[in-house]
């Protein structure tokens, strides 16, 4: 049996726009011929059903370690996309690829299919087409698993040519045309599977701990649950302004008030803010609340969730990133003090009582451009400047300024501080956790302070939410809460940027 030389079928460079237009015209003409000859060629260019008996991955799994030049006698019918092709006089070769990236060679010979069918293959089949082939499973002289085709049929005619699969797609092409990325790159397909495994793992872990998954509104009459700029829209049915949610927190807490004492949601959030390697305006978010927990129990939960996800995607707490780097997510993670580490970095004691004038001086000395009425904002900016970038291993940063965390319980022993942590991995924030504020009187006071900031022009300040306060007045048990970006969790597991972890990210 002859052996395919698939490289020769591919151009050295990507086709120009004019060449693509010409190829499209040629392929459209082939589509018309397929439709016109549908009776002879079995269903035209886009048949509704094909006599498939198995899949490419199943054939590869069944026939492993075969010697070269073997005819198995096994007849199969499979379908796949042609990603490499070479036509010769009496024998044509094609490499068929399935959705998971598995490939198998198809050999179309004059002796097996006849002169008319071989001629039709040469004339009508192109790279990128989906085809069905039926025939015997064999190995070539070089041992390549193949199908010796006895009959074939177009499954879906591709009108546009594939990019050169020997060249790496640039980032813009990968993001804007993810379907091409999925065809061309194993890493792109792996990202999709890793995300699915991660979400399944999160749900398994929660289920094992007695948490209930719920869904809360995406469209809200009042945005809240985080400090962020919202997207604004209008409901014609209700003739009112609505907001795409920035967080599900205030609704999940209503569920806790109602008696769903362990509750979580995995869903989309929307924040009308900048986009960079760690931020996307639309992103997937996990939030969870546990009655009678606190921020330490939520830190334990978050570590378990992430470590279980690592096991689900990599089989180990040591994950391998896309660039080959190994990253250890195992063990117990460090828990450090925001104020303590900042004090060490600047060489003087910084507390919640440090005057804002001194914090402004420290910010100026560090070259931090900030103008804000809250002292806590300066503390957080100074901490990020001095400490954040050095946190590579997973680290919980504990105890934040009270004035920047209006939904968090005051620290049980330290004035001016709240029981909040942020989890940093690879130098970026991955998750956050609280001992939740459940006192409706204090919560109202915090909302009023936020409303003042909003009145002064702060677009990220929360509004006073009377419906949420009314729910709290019916009594919410002491609780812990946590939130984690799913996209960022995939960044920690894969080492990729956020646009690579989102299947279809928002782009201009």
From TrEMBL:
It is an enzyme of class 6 (ligase). Keywords: Aminoacyl-tRNA synthetase, ATP-binding, Cytoplasm, Ligase, Magnesium, Metal-binding, Nucleotide-binding, Protein biosynthesis. It comes from the Bacteria. Its EC number is 6.1.1.6. Its main location: cytoplasm. It is found in: Cytoplasm. Mg(2+) 2 binds at residue 429. InterPro entries: Aa-tRNA-synt_II (IPR004364), aa-tRNA-synth_II (IPR006195), aa-tRNA-synth_II/BPL/LPL (IPR045864), Lys-tRNA-ligase_II (IPR002313), Lys-tRNA-ligase_II_N (IPR044136), Lys-tRNA-synth_II_C (IPR018149), NA-bd_OB-fold (IPR012340), NA-bd_OB_tRNA (IPR004365). It catalyses: tRNA(Lys) + L-lysine + ATP = L-lysyl-tRNA(Lys) + AMP + diphosphate. Binds 3 Mg(2+) ions per subunit. SUPFAM superfamilies: Class II aaRS and biotin synthetases, Nucleic acid-binding proteins. Mg(2+) 1 binds at residues 422, 429. Its cofactor is Mg(2+). GO terms for molecular function: ligase activity. PANTHER family: LYSINE--TRNA LIGASE, CHLOROPLASTIC_MITOCHONDRIAL (PTHR42918:SF15), LYSYL-TRNA SYNTHETASE (PTHR42918). Homodimer. This is Lysine--tRNA ligase. It comes from Agromyces allii.
